[in-house]
């Protein structure tokens, strides 16, 4: 097998992704429109005339120089296990990609192979948080480990790729640690709502019941409701000390993702006696659903709108045939004094698992420009 990489159309890119069980929404052609400050390109791997892999590349320009960092967030979408073990190994897949990106003006490449190295079930995470001898999730014994994924990271090292240091579990790009709620059992059989509920801790089940008894109603919103979402999202940002994205970002995200697939992105609204108390966004590609953004008001937190809205999204993901409900990033800290532990405990209450991705990896092509870019990003 002799692989080649070349630019493909958005239509061919989307058609390839549609043929798969799932892929990260960050690798859909539409995501390039969301990240309009980057230049987007769809690329495909070809074995002869057959497409066998795809990727969304986002090009970040260096100031004053027509050179770029080529970034593939949670990508590319290739079968990394087969690539590692196939003819020519991983090098046969990565070399033609790097050659193509270099021809497009890339001084360096950053990618995030979407493979899971290790996982910790809810009981293990709960026990680890309570153990003062453990400071990070990586210190705790994993429930499961993926030997082939670990071998992949070793091969990347050997081929000259550099893993980006994750501070608290986060790199400059995507989180290294995510939290998954499986919606199918180990044999792939869909779990029932009762089975998922029984897997949650007592507090989650109690809060879901309390929201129901309090009269919280969860409905789907449309583009016109993004303003209401953004109002309480901004309130949440002040309360939780993070910088909120502007409203136009969500409007662009809505138009781009739903323009590609009318059910790609959903907006959920939780009301209590006419008051909006929580709002969330969900993104779905194939059999993978992501809770992407969430917000809640400081007032009426006792009616548990956040639990009600999560339960509605989980049930809708199950009804859509999804195998995973992805609650996105968590930090790796187990320090009880760290405020991020509260987020971990909230997600652990669903009964899911913390998963560790392979992380993000850089390959410098022009080392001088790569170092200059690193210094530029640090100054920013």
Provide a descriptive summary of the structure in words.
The chain has 380 residues and is an alpha+beta fold. The chain folds into two domains: 3-112 and 361-379, Aminopeptidase, CATH 3.40.630.30; 184-322, Gcn5-related N-acetyltransferase (GNAT) (Aminopeptidase, 3-Layer(aba) Sandwich). 37% of the residues lie in helices and 27% in strands. It is built from 13 helices and 16 strands. It has helices at 10-18, 31-34, 80-85, 89-103, 122-129, 147-158, 193-199, 202-214, 226-240, 247-260, 305-319, 340-348, 367-379; strands at 3-7, 39-47, 50-61, 68-72, 106-111, 116-121, 144-145, 162-163, 177-182, 217-221, 265-272, 275-285, 288-296, 324-329, 353-357, 361-364. It has a nine-stranded mixed beta sheet with strand order 7-6-15-9-14-13-12-11-10. A seven-stranded mixed beta sheet has the order 1-2-3-4-5-16-8, sandwiched between helices. A hairpin with a 2-residue loop joins strand 11 (265-272) and strand 12 (275-285). Helix 8 packs across helix 11. The mean pLDDT is 94.
């Amino acid at each position: 097998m002799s692989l080649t990489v070349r630019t493909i159309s958005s239509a061919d890119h989307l058609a390839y992704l549609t043929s798969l069980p799932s892929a990260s929404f960050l690798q859909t052609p539409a995501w390039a429109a969301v990240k309009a400050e980057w230049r987007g390109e769809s690329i495909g791997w070809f074995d002869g005339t057959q497409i066998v892999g795809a990727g969304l590349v986002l090009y970040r320009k260096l100031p004053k120089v027509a050179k770029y960092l080529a970034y593939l967030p949670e990508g590319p979408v290739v079968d990394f296990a087969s690539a590692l073990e196939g003819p020519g190994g991983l090098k046969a897949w990565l070399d033609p990609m790097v050659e193509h990106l270099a021809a497009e003006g890339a001084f360096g490449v950053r990618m995030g192979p979407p493979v899971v190295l290790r996982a910790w079930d809810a009981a293990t995470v709960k026990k680890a948080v309570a153990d003062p001898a453990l400071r990070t999730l990586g210190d705790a014994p994993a429930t499961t480990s993926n030997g082939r994924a670990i071998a992949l990271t070793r091969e990347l090292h050997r081929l000259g790729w550099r893993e980006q240091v994750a501070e608290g579990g986060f790199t400059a790009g995507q989180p290294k640690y995510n939290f998954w709620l499986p919606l199918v059992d180990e044999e792939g059989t869909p779990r029932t709502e009762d089975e998922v509920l029984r897997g949650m801790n007592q507090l989650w089940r109690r809060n879901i019941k309390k929201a129901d008894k309090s009269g919280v109603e969860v409905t789907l919103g449309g583009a016109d409701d993004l303003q209401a979402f953004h109002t309480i999202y901004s309130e949440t940002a002040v309360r939780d000390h993070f910088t909120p994205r502007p409203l136009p970002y969500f409007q662009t995200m809505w138009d781009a993702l739903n323009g590609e697939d009318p059910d790609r992105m959903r907006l959920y609204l939780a009301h209590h006696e006419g008051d909006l108390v929580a709002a969330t966004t969900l993104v779905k590609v194939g059999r993978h659903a992501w809770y992407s953004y969430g917000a809640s008001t400081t007032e009426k937190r006792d009616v548990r709108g956040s639990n009600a809205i999560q339960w509605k999204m989980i049930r809708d993901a199950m009804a859509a045939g999804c195998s995973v409900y992805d609650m996105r990033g968590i930090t790796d800290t187990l320090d009880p004094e760290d405020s991020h532990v509260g987020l971990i405990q909230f997600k652990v209450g669903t009964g899911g698992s913390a998963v560790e991705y392979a992380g993000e990896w850089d390959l410098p092509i022009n080392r001088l420009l790569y170092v200059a870019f690193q210094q530029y990003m640090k100054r920013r």
